Amino acid sequence: MIDPPARIALTREVGPSLARCELTHLEREPIDLERARAQHRAYEDCLRSLGCGVERLPPEPDLPDAVFVEDAAVVLEEVAVLARPGAPSRRAEVESAAKALAPYRALLAIEPPGTLDGGDVLVIGRSVYVGLSTRTNPEGATQLAAALAPHGYAVRPLAVRSCLHLKTAVTGVGPSAVLLNPAWVDAAAFDAFERTFVHPDEPWGANALAVGPGVVYADAFPRTRDRLLGRGLDVRALDVSELAKAEGGVTCCSLVFDAGP
Ligand code: CIR
Description:
binds citrulline, 15 strands, three-stranded mixed β-sheet, L-arginine/glycine Amidinotransferase, Chain A, globular, alpha/beta
């Protein structure tokens, strides 16, 4: 008998309404749906190559941003916290994520008036950084802190400037290493970690997804990629240019977690 994969990646296919996605910091540009779908399939293949069992959530053709499943929940070893996305158009995405997570984790939820997008939550060990953004409010961060305190996580809110989510500005690239854009988030908040800064010509280059032995990364940022390679990281570069027009990066398109015992 073949064992089921220990690491799960939840994803959702690119829906037909993606062109009507929410946008905060980018001008709307035409999106080539077929290209976006091909890029997304390559992304899923990359996750498989890094040991993930990819489980697709059901299609949501009328929810333009539903491919960006990261925003629907925060999944930790002990518990999953269902998000309450800051954009009302995205709240209906959470229900199907809850159903998919229920077999794996106890579920808690952010309640009104709290708002929180998963893209604003960066977990490194027992430290949980929460970006206060146009999507995540202080009440959402407070509720997350209360949900996670019994499990020994310290939740630290911090300001995010000029970009959508905290993880547009900083992501983890190893157990104690981060990649960040110091113009968009306070770099000093991460001085306990090994820090790699994005190349100044690549401000959008701080979004990387560390999975097992690899780091999934957009091929649009070659100068920053060289910095990651210089750190000895196994960078898996992908073309995600169509998803980027919807303000999506490599973290946004999956929820990756260990299936558990
Ligand atoms: C939005 O504005 O909500 C989507 N168009 C993009 C969400 C990207 N998600 C993420 O970075 N976690």
